[in-house]
Amino acid sequence: MERFPSKNILSSLSQFQPATAEEPNTPQPKPLKRVVSGSALKTLLEGKTGQPKHSDHLNSEFVDYVSKELPRDEKTILTSIITLLSSTFFKTPHNTTSVDAYNGAAFSIRNRLLRRLDGTDQFFNSIKAKRVYYMSLEFLIGRTFDNAMLALGLKNEYSNAIKTLGYKMEDVIDEERDAALGNGGLGRLAACFVDSLACSNYPGWGYGLRYKYGMFQQQIINGYQVEAPDCWLDNPNPWEFPRPEISYKVKFYGNVAKSASNPHGYTWENAVEYEAMAFDVPVPGYGTKNVGNIRLWSCKTNHLFDLNRFNSGDYSGATANMVAADMLTNVLYPNDNHNNGKELRLKQEYLFVSATIQDVIARFKTSGKAWSEFSHMVAIQLNDTHPALGIAELQRILIDDEGMEWDQAWSIVTKTFAFTNHTILPEAMEKWSVPMLGKILPRHLGIIYDINLFFLQHVEKLYPNDRDLLARISIIEESSPQQARMAYLAIVGSHHVNGVAQIHSDIIKDTIFSDFVKVYGPDKFVNVTNGVAPRRWVNQCNPELASLITEAVGDDSWVNHYSKSSKLEEFVDDEDFRRRWWEVKQTKKEQLARYIKNTCGIEVSSNALFDIQVKRIHEYKRQLMNILSVIYRYNKLKNMSPQMRKEQVPRVVVFAGKAASGYYIAKLIIKLINSVADVVNNDKDIGDSLKVVFIPDYCVSAAEVIIPASDISQHISTAGTEASGTSNMKFVMNGGLILGTVDGANVEITEEVGDEQIFMFGVLAHEVDDFRYNQRYHATPPDSALQSVFDTIRSGLFGNPNEFNPLIECSHGAGDNYLVSVDFPSYLMAHDAVEELYKDNDAWVTKSILCAARMGKFSSDRSIDDYAENIWNIEPTAADF
Ligand SMILES: *Cc1c(COP(=O)(O)O)cnc(C)c1O
Questions:
Q1: pTM score
Q2: Separation of 184 CA from ligand 1 center, angstroms?
Q3: Cα(610)–Cα(689) distance, rounded to whole angstroms?
Q4: Which residue has the higher pLDDT, 14 or 564?
Q5: Which candidate among 25, 86, 189, 228 keeps its CA 20 to 30 Å from the CA of 403?
């Protein structure tokens, strides 16, 4: 795959190095002589020293106040909002807007969460519960306000209070900006998992980074994606608590020397030191007092201001170190399933890992338990390899700071970590150049070498004289320069490795990790199929459907026990229920039609079949195949008589998704979609028979509008490339059907709902290698349908045909790595089957209800139960406070 550098903030950032980086040993300029002395000035210049004082006196009123729940009536809520508006936000009835109403209400409800967050933490401390830490460089949280109101069961009360203030709840909810600290599925999974941890009363937290700029905002200008920074922290953020008292020093660069005092340890000298500070993001549990937490780290900068350089007139020098530190938590890398090996990314990962491991150890120490108990008190899950350096970091701290021997430390490490693999795409595998690792993290490189040495000695004992095996399995790849393979480090340092859907877990055992199965045996490798939170992905985004499910189940207990939604199946023949089921879908389609009008200016008919593909734009996800089939459909409609055209099922094809800023082909696919949309939507012959829409800036809150409105959604990755997919689950839970390939969680969805309910097509995962080989060396020409589509593009109908040539090249012949031309004929047949069924409304509604009823497995609560039981060995306990 080819990627071209693009001129945006990220590519310039990644060239960046801190001012101190090149010469960490440069002596600092001597402080200027101070002419005034005295303790007041000393405090002023050097900051307060010593610890703030903690009173031993437990004031009973204070204890009472924080341990009691606030009254839940409307009057109390309204008063709390007005108090916040008039004091904290300095607003009067004359200048309050809907943004202020949002701020007042959001801060009011977060103050309720605050008490419960503290209560939950104290409770788990008091019972000395084993805790799980979900380490993830991404948390795609989206909005929190609605989620919090629903979790606390206070949405009616807040809605009434908002109404009394003169605002509509929908408008106020829309004032919240998404917390978009993630790219796509992996980050959203992390957010669903912490939601499930909280709702199911597990003692678990998420750990991540607090990026100042989250996922870029996508604008579409002349059909092209243009990236704008996501300044999500411009407004006050009610959902984070700064914790300046919780911060840790993190070192970079420098050199390593044998410790004089510690016989096993090394000291890390001449390092550049940064400081990471905690921000806590409460995660409300639905229908439980338990409130979880995501602790996000931000790099502190203010103390790095160089007053001496400032005084000598060197203004940019005065802030150089601040800028360097700031960079570490400035920007989320916008790559999904792609690794680009940049130095700044390595530093981000290490800052995250080091602060997290230090914090976990600090909490463990308050339990008073011995080190031998560590893995009975702590489980750490690595969400992909991004936090895999945590393995080396814990080993380093145990040896260098705690004075342990290698074996004792390593035994603790490998009982603590577990690793989730998310992809087999080679371009996504994280590797760090060894010279770069050695420069930035000299001690960790030494530890990784030792881990590898002991591991290879173990392999050599099991399989003597197999030099090929040793070369294949080594954590250090013998390329030039050498590369450290982070997935291998993660496997060697973990007690379990899991894939995210059964087919994916099987594939990694048979392919990329097969050598490790030989060494460790098969039991280290397990499957935990992904899931999504029914709180957000049904109850919150589709209240209309939620009330039907509540009616079928008898109460709302399905929200935390989603398999109860199977009760829906009993209503599949109930005429009245079926009618209301269909009306809900119509309502959601009308809402999406309005959203499309507002965001794209395109009118679509809510009577059409809504055919939706929304996800990151990627060659392996094959949005390209989708838009090529749209061109085919357009040609077919053009060739029909007006009468015949009227008899076709009218269709709205919806796309949304971001392309990584440096991913040239993905961006070109967006351009092709928009160019096709321009032609089709303005063709008077076509009218409502076909509309094509690209909704800009796909994000969690857009997904909440789009997903409930689908009739059919597409999950059409080349078999074997999509590890799981999670939006497939969200769509079916909302009564949409699936058009998909035999890949990822599609396979298990089919098992659950029945293969007669789903539209599947395409080659199978185990056939892909042969087809790829064939494409490369003996490709047959594309079939006539695909050829006609290429001809249309080449005719210039969608603008300069040369521009789209690269897309034609990668959808046939030797360039067709993702088998677009191979799957195209069966894809068109599947589309025909969808259309046939849609004409039979009764049959369609039956499938819609049956599918939704059979999705119990795909709640992330079930995923978390699986992890808790098979990997973490932790128990849920309802907090009692
Ligand atoms: C669920 C979700 C995804 C993942 O979608 P896939 O189709 O599984 O790749 C990505 N982005 C957002 C905003 C989501 O909500």
A1: 0.94
A2: 5
A3: 12
A4: 564
A5: 25
